[in-house]
């Protein structure tokens, strides 16, 4: 193992890891919100993120986004992408809940049914997206639109560069680039806004109430279905925000981009304590850092082994994750 | 994969409908992320078959396509199906090394000859498999050519080598590493479908390399190159035939990919021999210039079609035919040694340069 490579630039690897983990953290919020309220792992959330990345790609392509257009325009591009991606991701999350989960809830289906539905919805969304981008609707109705073709189809597609990567801070032990700064600060800001919303607002109180005890909350006049819709939309919007940051930082997407990120974000949520918003942030950042450290010590192909190895060890000692499961319980 | 149900089943191998012609299978990644480096070869083969059928209307050859997406797990059931269906008498493929390795035992068991236009892993021909033949060089020729390009054309002595751990990518990277020897200043192995290459880029930066080689496919190479450039790494970028795909430049970005070199044991389409304008005919037929392995696909099909022309119609006859084949193709003189390789002396490796987002022929790599 290459300890020299790790310790000679520990600060740099930490920054790299934090900016990688910030995106996991934002996606992890969607898993954690839904789990906190419904005790359901919404595996379709990875595709909610994927749809967000394509919304960003679409928005920037339509606007002809370009990093050369000056700071004002770049802010406009980012703002528009945020709105479009949040709407697209929130909309898909909401649609998944209305179409797939609500009918099951009404019938009091066992949790295993929810789990397999979630996996099914994820696959259906991912493959349909890949198929339609690749071949359009002509397979369903000959003669109609036959897709973007390559490389929009099942190949990795490049996004316009909106922010030129530049070093903005050089402290000797590490440098931080504008993209990394935007990603880390953006993720923390979105996360704080969500935390405030859940803990300080009336609607947030409803969410916590349903998370604690759905039946009592209903008796107290909280509309449970509305709360559930709200958490799906909120989780989706966070995934949309993550998609914008992902587009800014990496500038690529592909129909199955959500798969790996989804698994990592879910892992981050479990690591931090699923159902716990701050746990998601901690878990995401930690996971990103562990991956970069691990990839530096060994090969990049080992990063998952490091990430999941740490997860297993943490869960041995703290089965509910680092901060424990507590969407409703933290502050009644 | 369609239109097979209900076709003749079982048979004993003797063809009772006609004394010539027959059915061949072609398999490879005709869809999916790597389709761009495989479909030109399929189209080349298609063109050869159609020309043959037009010239021999009483002796038609049918080519059935099986899309494996390049995935060994998807190629295996296809191989079982084709081997069991006696109406198939020969196979073109596999296009990738992984799927070839996974299926060649099955095809050998069925007595079917395989002619691959583009599977280049070295070990495919060293296992004693009787079925596998290829009309391209192997990674023992592409790997050293890449090393030559780096050391002779670019004159670099600081090279960073990455690969994706796949049968193709890792093997190619190993050859390049061993040929470059001490010029390799660092290496990393990435994951398939990896998206964030921060750790790899930090390693490249530390190594001070002025050339980065990646053994693998577009899915990882394009984002890696894009992130390298974003991180301010100006090292030259070179990759093997896995990157010979228009999607590489488009995904990595026009400015980021400018000047990147892609090598291929395939020839540039307009350098095809054979007494007719292959490139122009291909373009008329499929609407685009012949991409990677188009001429090799044509050659692979021609080896089999010549057999049909000579009245060979069974699996055994065609296998013997291919073993004894010796004729000039579009790309090179095709004559297989006892392992199923073409003569290394006839193999040429081309370098293609990404220029303005297009992959254009650069030069034949010096040996």
Give the SSE layout.
The complex is a heterodimer of chains A (332) and B (367).
Chain A: H1 3-8, H2 10-38, H3 45-63, H4 71-106, H5 111-135, E1 157-158, E2 167-170, E3 175-177, H6 178-200, H7 202-212, H8 214-219, H9 224-249, E4 252-253, H10 257-272, H11 277-297, H12 303-317
Chain B: E1 22-28, H1 39-55, E2 61-67, H2 72-84, E3 88-92, H3 97-109, E4 113-116, E5 132-134, H4 139-153, E6 159-163, H5 167-180, E7 184-189, H6 198-207, E8 211-215, H7 218-230, E9 236-239, H8 246-252, H9 254-257, E10 261-264, H10 278-286, H11 294-309, H12 315-324, E11 326-328, E12 333-335, E13 350-355, E14 358-364
Parallel strand pairs in B: 1-2, 1-3, 3-4, 4-5, 6-7, 6-8, 8-9, 9-10
Antiparallel strand pairs in B: 10-13, 11-12, 13-14
Helix pairs in contact in B: 1-11, 2-3, 4-5, 7-8, 11-12
Please describe what this structure looks like:
- The complex is a heterodimer of chains A (332) and B (367).
- Chain A has a domain at 19-138 and 185-256.
- Chain A is built from twelve helices and four strands.
- Chain A has helices at residues 3-8, 10-38, 45-63, 71-106, 111-135, 178-200, 202-212, 214-219, 224-249, 257-272, 277-297, 303-317; strands at 157-158, 167-170, 175-177, 252-253.
- In chain A, the strands form two sheets. In chain A, strands 1-4 form a two-stranded antiparallel sheet. A two-stranded antiparallel sheet of chain A has the order 2-3.
- In chain A, a hairpin with a 4-residue loop joins strand 2 and strand 3.
- With 367 residues, chain B is α/β, with parallel strands linked by helices.
- Helix content of chain B is 38%, strand content 19%.
- Chain B is built from twelve helices and 14 strands.
- The longest helix of chain B has 17 residues, at 39-55.
- Mean pLDDT of chain B is 90; it is low at 1-18.
- The interface between A and B is large, with 42 and 37 residues.
